[in-house]
Write a structure and sequence with these properties.
- The N terminus is likely disordered.
- The protein is built from 14 helices and no strands.
- It is mostly helical.
- The radius of gyration is 21 Å and the shape is globular.
- It has one domain.
- The two termini are 31 Å apart.
Length: 363
């Protein structure tokens, strides 16, 4: 596979930029939930939740890229992949995600637990990143924790996917399979006796859980081949199938939910950034935010919580001004706190993972 020169590690700043925009989008919608807001920007603000899909697209892209780069250079690339992923995600999730939010919120339940207290099973499932199997656990202990279990589920199958998907047409095939799998499981779950269509929690669950997000990761893999394989040509067969999917979508028989449509747009944005990195969109500020974005994702909920505790969420009578000030303060506080967690939690534990890999490879 021939690689574009722009894909060397020192020229992947646009991926950090994508992560930066992703976390800003997530913070944008959550800032709107803590105080007065403006209806004028409500549609834009609410779509900030699609920042998670931008994370997933960037994740699939970078994981395929790094797996390809290390495959011929390491003795045990699959083992090393899981070590790196664990030390990249788990320490921060355990300390800040589970540890801090248990201290902040205690065991009190809420919407996601049907107002029942947080159970021991819920806590254990979060430690093993399998809380995505239960609609009452998927997002109840750690704010935004649903995306972490989805991400870890993708890690679990990535080595298999990498061994099977070797070109863009196979990536398109996987995308189509994931679309139909999502639709089939959606119908199956809605037919189960314990599924309650009147309970909003269940409808949210079948949007949040892994099979619903799998097509988004598939699109990130397609982006990988578009950017990294100069010979990527989509076959007529693949184009025909994609065309039929879009025609069905336009006629009302939609297999492409809004989060998948957004992900398609994010792929186009990523390809554009890989070829043209305008300073207005890819710059040191947004790339730094992207670099610490995992910390920011977990930390910003705490910043918003304490702003509310100290009655520092509304300032004037104008909702738009309130939201703007609150958003700026939240970004500033989150960047400062996340700089600390990134340097004192994320990086040190990543170094531990690297040392383990080096020690076991030397054996």
């Amino acid at each position: 596979m021939q690689k574009n020169q722009d894909n060397s590690s020192n020229k992947l700043s646009y991926i950090d930029a994508l992560r930066g925009y992703a976390v800003l989008g997530v913070i944008m919608i959550h800032t709107n939930q803590y105080g007065q807001s403006s209806n004028k920007l409500l549609n834009i603000i609410n779509n900030g939740k699609m920042g998670v899909q931008l994370f997933f697209v960037a994740s699939a892209f970078t994981l395929f890229l790094s797996f390809n780069n290390r495959l011929g250079r390491e003795k045990s690339p699959i083992r090393n992949f899981f070590i790196r992923r664990f030390f990249r995600i788990a320490p921060m999730y355990y300390l800040i995600g589970i540890g801090y939010y248990l201290l902040q919120n205690g065991l009190k339940g809420g919407y996601w637990t049907d107002n029942e207290p947080i159970s021991i099973g819920n806590i254990i499932s979060n430690f093993f990143f399998v809380h995505g199997i239960n609609p009452y656990w998927i997002n109840s202990l750690v704010p935004g924790g649903w995306s972490i279990t989805v991400e870890m589920s993708f890690y679990a199958i990535l080595p298999f996917l990498f061994s099977k998907i070797k070109n863009i047409n196979q990536a398109v095939t996987f995308f189509l399979i994931s679309i139909f799998l999502k639709a089939f499981l959606h119908i199956l779950i809605k037919s189960l006796p314990f599924f309650d269509p009147t309970q909003h929690l269940w409808t949210e669950f079948i949007y949040l859980y892994f099979p619903s997000q799998l097509p988004v990761f598939a699109l990130g893999i397609i982006m990988y081949f578009i950017i990294n394989d100069s010979h990527s040509i989509i076959s007529g067969k693949s184009l025909l199938l994609l065309s039929l999917i879009f025609i069905l979508h336009l006629t009302g028989f939609s297999l492409l939910n809004p989060h998948i449509m957004f992900a398609i747009g994010f792929v186009m944005l990523g390809v554009a950034f890989s070829r043209y990195q305008a300073i207005a969109f890819v710059n040191p500020i947004i790339t730094y935010i992207g670099k610490i974005s995992f910390s920011m994702y977990l930390v910003h909920f705490a910043i918003l919580y304490w702003l509310t505790v100290f009655h520092f969420s509304d300032f004037v009578q104008n909702g738009l001004i309130n939201y703007s000030i609150r958003f700026f303060i939240t970004i500033l506080g989150t960047v400062l706190a996340s700089t600390l967690t990134y340097n004192f939690i994320e990086l040190p534990f990543q170094e531990i993972g690297k040392k383990l890999i080096k020690r076991w490879d030397n054996k």
